[in-house]
Design goal:
89 residues, alpha+beta, 5 strands
Amino acid sequence: MEEFDTKLTLKAENGHNVTIDILDIIDSYEFNKTFIIYTLVGGDSATVLASILNETDLEYSLDTITSQEEINYIDEQIKLFMVEDESLA
């Protein structure tokens, strides 16, 4: 099985670069957004985070998920990912 680099470095709101380890990327046609599920490199790997992923020609950035509908959607996606991840182990 081929290994992929799941690390992505992006600019945080404070202007500093942050490296994340991508667990999953979800294109939602329902919300017309791309969501990313990830952990922080160097942080607690048990803490799973999710954000809206924005991509330009030059860089990536993350936005906070603020809509309760989007939060509920992502919570379900994280649960599905965790179930799938356990079945692959």
